[in-house]
């Protein structure tokens, strides 16, 4: 799509703070294209070495769960205590389990 | 999707806030909450952006490279603060363009403090020390504001602010330990910036029209007068250390309350500046408009380039 709007498309910014760490959402920037989005994200969110790596993602491609459906959406996990180690009994004296 | 009545939604909304939970962009929220937050966050963003002007005024005239690098980094941070906050406001459903339009057409307000001029180098010291100092007190409170994106922007901002205040105070220390003329310059800056800084906390509690809803919604967690008192209690000993005098003859330590008592703010001046008659209102707005217009070719070029690449790829 041709861009006319001077506010530019919106990009969500994710930053990895240290090697090995997961990427975390930091905020968003506007930019005309992906290269500029990356540069803007660097200037806006990592002026003090807050990151070792950045992802920028067009905001329109992010799909989010809806708050109204929070109950039914996550409900399948609610009654499955057997997914947790504490559900299982370990006989006294047995180690490394 | 929701089949709850508005009344039930409002109750749930308020319960969530009272339980110290956060409201996120897609959550149901009261229209009044959305409206007031857009107003407050965008005013805050505009303040960061306009706030660059009085300080940028001294970048080329900083007395040495250390000071210049520090001031430049501070002003750059303020641009960043403006951007974090515009992003937060946009999550409430207003576009960046509309926000900028409101600023450039004079429809939106920004902090009164930036309508005062920075006349000498000492003003850069006083601004960092007092203006950023006052802003920090307000922003620390806002780190736990109920709107998630606003609170997160505040946490990021607060991490950066303490350097701003320290670089200002260091300028003041240097001037106050310098020649008599330098110390007089520091005193003069304190004289001019004291009361405008005190005004940054807004009207007295009894005259504050927006406070009660914002308090109920956990945006304003402390009152204007309480925040102002904290500012005075923190800053007066710092002025004592500098050996300069706060321009308020009613200012004195109260052993009974364990706080400083202080004089009344000139609210006529406060309202005058809000209504556009401060020393620099017109100059600030014109500078913003000029910067926006001068930047147009850059924005256009970026869009033209992006469009060209997209066509090539297609
Ligand atoms: Fe700031
Ligand atoms: Fe600042």
Features:
heterodimer, A: 97 residues, alpha+beta, Ubiquitin-like (UB roll), elongated, B: 314 residues, mainly alpha, two-stranded antiparallel sheet, 13 helices, 68% helix, globular, binds fe (ii) ion
| Strand proportion of chain A | 15-25%
State the low-pLDDT regions of chain A, or none.
Answer: none
Q: Summarize model confidence as the mean pLDDT of chain B.
A: 95
Helical fraction of chain A: 10-25%
Q: What structural category arises from helix and sheet content of chain B?
A: mainly alpha
Mean pLDDT of chain A: 90
Largest sheet of chain B: 2 strands, antiparallel
Our Rg estimate of chain B from Cα atoms comes to 21 Å
Q: Given the structure, what is the number of helices of chain A? A: 2
How many β-strands of chain B, per DSSP?
2
How many separate helices of chain B? 13
The CATH class designation of chain A is: Alpha Beta
Shape of chain B: globular
**Reading side by side through the largest sheet of chain B, how are the strands ordered?**
1-2
CATH architecture label name of chain A: Roll
Give the total of domains of chain A: 1
CATH topology of chain A: Ubiquitin-like (UB roll)
Globally, the shape of chain A reads elongated
> H/E series of chain A, N to C?
EEHEH
């Amino acid at each position: 799509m041709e861009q006319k709007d001077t506010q530019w498309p919106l990009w969500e910014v994710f930053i990895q703070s240290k090697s090995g760490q997961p990427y975390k959402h930091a905020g968003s920037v506007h930019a005309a294209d992906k290269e500029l989005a990356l540069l803007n994200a660097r200037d806006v969110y990592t002026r003090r070495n807050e990151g070792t790596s950045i992802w920028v993602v067009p905001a329109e491609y992010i799909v989010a769960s809806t708050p109204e459906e929070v109950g039914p959406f996550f409900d399948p996990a609610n009654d499955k205590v057997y997914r947790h180690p504490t559900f299982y009994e370990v006989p006294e004296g047995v180690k490394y389990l | 999707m929701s089949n709850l009545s508005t009344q039930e939604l409002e109750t749930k909304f308020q319960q969530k806030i009272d339980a110290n939970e956060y409201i996120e962009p897609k959550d149901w929220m009261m229209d009044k909450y959305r409206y007031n937050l857009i107003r407050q966050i965008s005013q805050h963003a505009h303040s960061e952006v306009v706030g660059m002007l009085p300080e940028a005024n001294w970048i080329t005239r900083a007395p040495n490279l250390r000071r210049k690098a520090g001031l430049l980094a501070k002003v750059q941070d303020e641009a960043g603060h403006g951007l974090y906050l515009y992003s937060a406001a946009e999550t409430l459903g207003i576009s960046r363009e509309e926000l900028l339009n409101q600023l450039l057409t004079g429809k939106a307000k920004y902090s009164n403090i930036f309508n005062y001029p920075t006349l000498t180098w000492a003003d850069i010291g006083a601004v960092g020390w007092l203006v950023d100092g006052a802003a920090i007190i307000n922003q620390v409170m806002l780190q736990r504001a109920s709107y998630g994106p606003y609170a997160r922007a505040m946490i990021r901002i607060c991490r950066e602010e303490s350097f701003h205040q320290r670089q200002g105070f260091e300028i003041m220390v240097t001037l106050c330990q310098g020649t008599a003329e330098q110390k007089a310059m520091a005193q003069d800056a304190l004289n001019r910036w004291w009361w405008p800084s005190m005004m940054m906390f807004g009207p007295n509690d009894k005259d504050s029209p927006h406070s009660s809803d914002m308090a109920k919604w956990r945006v304003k967690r402390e009152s204007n007068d309480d925040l102002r008192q904290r500012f005075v209690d923190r800053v007066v000993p710092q002025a004592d250390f500098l050996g300069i005098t706060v321009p308020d003859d009613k200012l004195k330590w109260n052993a009974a309350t364990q706080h400083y008592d202080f004089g009344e703010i000139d609210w006529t001046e406060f309202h005058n500046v809000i209504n556009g008659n401060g020393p620099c209102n017109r100059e600030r707005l014109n500078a913003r408009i000029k910067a926006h217009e001068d930047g147009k070719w850059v924005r256009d070029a970026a869009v033209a380039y992006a469009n060209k690449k997209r066509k090539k790829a297609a």
